[in-house]
């Protein structure tokens, strides 16, 4: 197996033992960087997709990721990237072959060094790996936003520590001043660097310059951050004024007035699993020993996510820094009983610190002041668990020094704004950590026996530690994890399964969050329980609750703050599975009187919003399928431009599919198939059709079961189109014939014309030219009777395909050209783009390469203008083949490469064919 060396701390470098390996720029490099940064660990497909496509993952992220990983494997060779059970990939590489891991390993060695000289040597070795801005030429939003800043912070800290050590061991300060000036110019808000510069100037005897440096940093901090220099820098300034010589960070330690204080932290979690990133992030928030202001950290997150476990575990790890007092108080913000009042909390804390009862005043302000005085000068850690709001916490904060950790289900924004708290959101455990937690609870052998079941259990538990621990307890009594999967499969009973009694249930935890809501937020939460999908846009939520958009926005903001809802994108919200199930329970109990009205109101909204979006994409389409459903009471979005409707479909697509499928399962087939039909244009442009077989097949079954005959016809026609696009002409003919028979039976003349045209197309494909011509003529007659102006052009297009299938390419060209002329008169660029594609193919069969290229290029321009990226790539693939035949392989390589990139992104099966064509060049 080849060995590799990868450098990311600067411009991209990737070398193999046999020489440099070229990894194409773009997403392949970002994917490799993602796997390298998590070397020897499993990374889930979902995480990789978020990192490779942070702005907008493709619709079929899993298929696209599989394609990209396959390309990497070909470049890297066997045994490097492994597929892991339950999904995800792992890259195997020695950490010392990756500069990022080597850099961090050396920093760890420096922190643990027994002497300054060894620490300095490790720091220098680490900093030598730094070649510039990390990931400089990868152009990745994820790397630039989430990874590079942390590495830069680590580099700055290491550089500052190196300079401090060099100053301490007697390095001539003149050697350090120029570097420090450059660093303070580049990072003007880094007080530690300014302190080193002031100290170096002072030691060099340049007292006036040291004072000027302090003046400069003070101006910077005031103007840019609105703050004064910290105590350490201010003390150094005083020493320069007094002509003292104490180096920064060398002040005498504070001596506490008591030798031992309370040790109230709950016991550490024996099975604590994962959270490495969160623990490192919390460590980065720890102050230096000279800090005067208290450090306040607020951990917020949904019920059951493990906030308390994380806070307690981290507090134990860092308790040695706070030997004077370690206080713990459950504020009971959510749970049985009333929340602890600030008056009671201050009294409890004062008693723990040894203040006699008779000395504790009755007034809250006085108690809070006494608490600050008692804590002053002490290195204290305070863990305030399960807070309701910022007002409950504020009186308990120390005035000087110390560390306060607060946990809450609510986002304590006020604590961040007014008190400078660092707010950290604790999210659900990643997939690998969730499985590890399950294995720790039930035993690794149980998980190893059935890793697939373990992954399903994790998903059913929504990656919530509380749910996983409850399930693990049940699994101890079950015969296998597969039995646990079966017990959790029933959504109606899932919350019952996640009940361990004695208030240790997910339902109880969620209930306390719900009861804490105000009336407007509670009403919105109940309505969300009626919504057929997990995610919802703001306008749909306002329709669901039947309130103005501004009112819905305020209610959703409260739900986001309470971690009952997550805001995934602008104006878009999501309920996790278990929260949705609880919301549905509440809705069933409290929304019985207006349940049906609410559901029909939101289904009307989705149907007509999707219709308007489809109208912008396909303005010449007849929409007789909407009858007899009338416009909704609520206003629905209008789309002046195709790009706006495309973006709307991209945001709503998964939600629309869920809504339509829910309606099909719940006796509302009329809504189901109509919503599905509004999606066909976007479905065709954006999504590979194999997904459509199951989707439209389900809606056909629902329409048939409910007696929706017109729905039967439309869904049968859609299935025929799907199978034709897949190359199954015989099967598609059967569907078109069945659809045509249904439309004849119900007297739906437009449906008859539509299916007659499709039968002309499929008979031409099957080589039955005469039948194709007859159907085309009948199509023309039907469309003329309906006064459908696009109809004759579509009939000519069908007839042209019949001629082409029979090898009559000159007659095909004539039909296609007449159709193009008609479509241009109608200003129908969409249908014109497809007809130009057919025209180009006919010219290619005649070996008239210049005309074929011209037709393809005209089609490409139209598809690009219309935003039909998938079909643009399809035409590019045909153009590439013609360029090869015409003797232009270099041009063809560029065109086919562009087609391959887009087809791969969409997971289109034709990507493989294009890749083979490229390989043959």
Give an account of the 3D structure:
There is one protein chain. The chain has 921 residues and is an alpha/beta fold. It contains 43 helices and 13 strands. A five-stranded parallel β-sheet has the order 7-8-9-6-10, sandwiched between helices. The chain has a three-stranded antiparallel β-sheet with strand order 1-2-3, with no helix packed on it. The protein has a three-stranded antiparallel β-sheet with strand order 11-13-12. Helix 25 packs antiparallel against helix 28 (595-617), helix 35 (749-765) runs parallel beside helix 37 and helix 39 (829-845) runs antiparallel to helix 40. The radius of gyration is 34 Å and the shape is globular. This is OmpR/PhoB-type domain-containing protein. Residues 1-93 bind DNA.
What does the radius of gyration come to?
A: 34 Å
Question: Roughly what is the average pLDDT, rounded to an integer?
Answer: 87
Determine the strand fraction and express it as a percent band. 5-15%
Computed structural class? alpha/beta
Number of helical regions:
43
CATH-wise, what's the superfamily of one domain? Winged helix-like DNA-binding domain superfamily/Winged helix DNA-binding domain
Shape: globular
| Largest beta sheet: strand ordering | 7-8-9-6-10
What is the fold-level CATH name, i.e. the topology of one domain? Arc Repressor Mutant, subunit A
- Largest sheet, strands/sense/barrel: 5 strands, parallel
Low-confidence stretches: 244-260
**Which CATH architecture of one domain would you pick?**
Orthogonal Bundle
Count of strand segments:
13
Termini, distance in Å? Answer: 29 Å
Give helix % range: 55-70%
């Amino acid at each position: 197996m080849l060995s590799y060396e990868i450098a990311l701390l600067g411009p991209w470098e990737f070398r193999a033992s046999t020489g440099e390996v070229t990894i194409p720029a773009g997403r392949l490099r970002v994917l490799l960087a993602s796997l390298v940064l998590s070397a020897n660990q499993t990374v889930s497909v979902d995480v990789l997709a978020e990192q490779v496509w942070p702005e907008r993952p493709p619709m079929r992220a899993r298929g696209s990721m599989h394609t990209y990983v396959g390309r990497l494997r070909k470049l890297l060779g066997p045994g490097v990237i492994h597929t892991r059970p339950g999904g995800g990939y792992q890259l195997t590489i020695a950490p010392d072959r990756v500069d990022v891991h080597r850099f961090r390993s050396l920093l760890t060695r420096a922190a643990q060094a027994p002497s300054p000289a060894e620490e300095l040597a490790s720091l220098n070795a680490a900093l030598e790996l730094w070649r510039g801005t990390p990931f400089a030429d990868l152009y990745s939003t994820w790397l630039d936003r989430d990874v590079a800043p942390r590495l830069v912070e680590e580099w700055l800290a290491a550089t500052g520590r190196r300079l401090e050590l060099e100053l301490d061991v007697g390095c001539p300060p003149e050697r350090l001043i120029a570097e420090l000036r450059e660093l303070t110019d580049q990072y003007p808000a880094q007080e530690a660097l300014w302190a080193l510069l002031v100290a170096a100037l002072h030691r060099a005897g340049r007292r006036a310059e040291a004072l000027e440096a302090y003046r400069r940093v003070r101006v910077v901090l005031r103007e840019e951050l609105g703050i004064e220099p910290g105590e350490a820098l201010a003390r150094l300034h005083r020493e320069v004024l007094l002509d003292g010589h104490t180096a920064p960070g060398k002040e005498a330690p504070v001596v506490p007035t008591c030798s031992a204080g309370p040790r109230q932290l709950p016991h550490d979690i024996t099975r604590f699993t994962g959270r490495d990133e969160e623990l490192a992030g919390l460590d980065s928030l720890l102050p230096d020993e000279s800090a005067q202001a208290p450090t306040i950290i607020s951990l917020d997150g949904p019920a059951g996510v493990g906030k308390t476990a994380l806070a307690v575990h981290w507090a134990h790890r860092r308790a040695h820094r706070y030997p004077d007092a370690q206080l713990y108080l459950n504020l009971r913000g959510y749970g049985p009983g009333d929340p602890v009042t600030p008056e009671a909390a201050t009294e409890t804390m004062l008693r723990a610190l040894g203040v006699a009862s008779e000395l504790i005043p009755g007034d809250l302000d006085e108690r809070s002041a006494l608490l600050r005085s008692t804590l002053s000068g002490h290195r204290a850690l305070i863990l305030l668990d399960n807070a309701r709001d910022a007002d409950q916490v504020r009186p308990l904060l120390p005035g000087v020094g110390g560390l306060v950790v607060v946990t809450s289900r609510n986002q304590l924004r006020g604590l961040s704004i007014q008190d400078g708290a660092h707010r950290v959101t604790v999210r659900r455990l990643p997939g690998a950590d969730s499985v590890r937690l399950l294995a720790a609870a039930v035993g690794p052998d149980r998980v190893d026996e059935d890793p697939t079941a373990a992954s399903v259990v994790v998903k059913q538990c929504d990656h919530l530690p509380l749910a996983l621990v409850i399930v693990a307890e049940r699994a101890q009594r079950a015969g296998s994890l597969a039995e646990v999967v079966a017990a959790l499969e029933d959504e109606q009973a899932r919350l019952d399964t996640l009940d361990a009694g004695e208030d240790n249930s997910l339902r109880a935890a969620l209930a306390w969050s719900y009861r804490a809501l105000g009336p407007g937020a509670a009403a919105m939460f109940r309505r969300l329980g009626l919504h057929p999908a997990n995610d919802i846009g703001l306008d749909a939520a306002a329709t669901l609750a039947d309130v103005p958009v501004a009112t819905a926005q305020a209610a959703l903001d409260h739900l986001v703050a309470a971690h009952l809802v997550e805001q995934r994108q602008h104006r878009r919200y999501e309920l996790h599975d278990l929260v949705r199930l609880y919301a549905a329970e509440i809705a069933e109990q409290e929304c019985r009187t207006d349940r049906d009205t609410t559901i029909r109101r939101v289904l009307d909204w989705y149907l007509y919003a999707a219709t308007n979006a489809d109208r912008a994409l396909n303005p010449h389409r007849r929409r007789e399928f909407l009858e007899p459903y009338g416009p909704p009471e609520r206003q629905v979005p209008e789309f002046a431009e195709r790009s706006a409707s495309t973006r709307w479909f991209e945001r709503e697509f998964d939600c629309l599919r869920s809504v339509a499928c829910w309606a099909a399962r719940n006796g509302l087939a009329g809504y189901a198939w109509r919503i599905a039909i509004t999606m066909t244009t976007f479905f065709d442009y954006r999504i590979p059709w194999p997904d459509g077989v199951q989707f439209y097949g389900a809606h056909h079954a629902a329409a048939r079961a409910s007696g929706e005959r017109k729905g039967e016809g439309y869904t049968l026609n859609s299935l025929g189109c799907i199978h034709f696009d897949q190359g199954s002409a015989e099967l598609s003919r059967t569907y078109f014939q069945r659809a045509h028979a249904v439309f004849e039976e119900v007297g739906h003349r437009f449906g008859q014309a539509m299916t007659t045209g499709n039968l002309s197309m499929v008979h031409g494909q099957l080589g039955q030219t005469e039948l194709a011509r007859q159907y085309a003529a009948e199509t023309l007659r039907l469309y003329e009777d309906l006064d459908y102006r696009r109809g004759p052009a579509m009939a000519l297009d069908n007839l042209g395909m019949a001629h082409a299938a029979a090898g009559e390419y000159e007659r095909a060209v004539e039909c296609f050209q007449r159709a193009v002329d008609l479509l241009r008169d109608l200003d129908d660029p969409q249908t014109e783009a497809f007809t130009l594609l057919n025209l180009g193919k006919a010219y290619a069969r005649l070996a008239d390469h210049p005309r074929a290229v011209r037709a393809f290029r005209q089609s490409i321009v139209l598809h690009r203008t219309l935003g039909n990226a998938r079909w643009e790539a399809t035409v590019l693939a045909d153009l590439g083949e013609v360029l090869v035949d015409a003797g232009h392989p270099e041009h063809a390589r560029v065109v086919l490469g562009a087609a391959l990139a887009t087809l791969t992104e969409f997971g289109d099966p034709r990507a493989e064919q294009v890749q083979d064509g490229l390989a043959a060049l």
